[in-house]
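JOB MANIFEST
job_type = single_chain_structure
chain_count = 1
residues = 407
[input]
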Amino acid sequence: MRWKATPEDFVVEEEVSLNLLPAGRFAVYRLEKVGRDSLSVRAELARRLGKPEADVVFPALKDAVARTVQWVGVRSGGPARVAGRGFVAERVGFADRPPDPRSLRGNRFTAVLRDVSPVEGRVLPAALGQLEAAGFPNYFDDQRFGSMVEGYGPFGRAVLRADDETVLRLYLAVPWVGDPRRVRGFKAEAARSWGEWDRLFGLAPARTNFRSVLTFLRDHPTDYRRAVRLIPARLLMLAVDAYRSWVWNLTVCRFFKEHGRAELAVTVSGHAFRVPDQPEEGWLGTAVPLPHPKAAYFPPWDRLVTDLLQAEGLSLADFAGRGRLPDRPSLTRRAIWVRPDGVSLEPDAPSGQVRVLRFRLPPGAYGTLLLKVLAVRVRTLAADSQHSEEAGGHRPEDHEPHHRQDQ
């Protein structure tokens, strides 16, 4: 079983609460995009409107490998329709403030499941029924971790440790997850020729920030601190926020490990995160802060976070950014456990090898993570089913409540 074979196979639509007006400080757009990440669409939309990117407000970022519907606020208004490569924005009204995270009520998902084998098709309703009833850990998924550095981990960790040369080496000379081929080629040369700033400037890809950093290093070969300040501040902020999310994931995983209720696991950016089969009492109401200088943790979370950060060589105070960041990251909390609702499963082809899954999640929860947990449950039930059939017994799905389907 696989999903996201094409962007059209994964549809996400934001649910929002908006107070639209006939006129206001912000124009509000319904934006539909396919195969584009939110940040690049935001930049192109700002260019087409002739506005700074700060005037184009997205309340949340959405997956690139998907068809997504999002709500956008544009300061001082704009035309009725704006179109670009892979996106169309239609103005739906005006507001005195732009849509923001407080406006979000959730996300509706439609996922096409392909290459569903006969045994997977038999156990899929039972696996989905289990997942709908139990829910799943609210981990951040891969989309959050585009700043992972191969062989090192989160780039934000280096930023907070304030080792300037390490930050530059990771930025200029070590591949990141998702780097295109031309960037990987340049970084390989930078690793071999570190310090040869004139040569590396000539090799740096055009229209990249690498050239700005290298221009400075040609004149100030060892002033790594000021060179780091030439890396876009927004990139540093995103990297630190991604690292906060990574620490949160690891902390929650350790919590589940201590509770001994983690028989399954899902992989996020190469790391196996534990997935309990059932939540314990109170988990649905538990929200844990992301690392922040003012974050308040209660037992056992205070111990878990402190131990983890000590192993990382950091403390909560370091998340202020030590003057490296344009602003301190926001103080936010995240639920450790979520449940989907509005779940339905229906066939899309007579063969049963393609199924269409629909569900809703609260704001911030990842539909791709639900699919990962579902796949693990399907594999587990399929293996149990095969063993049971070989032994001549009943299939596991025969004992599961039958999940609703539209036949």
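[summary]
Residues 396-407 have pLDDT under 50 and may be disordered.
The first strand starts at residue 10 and ends at 16.
exit_status = 0
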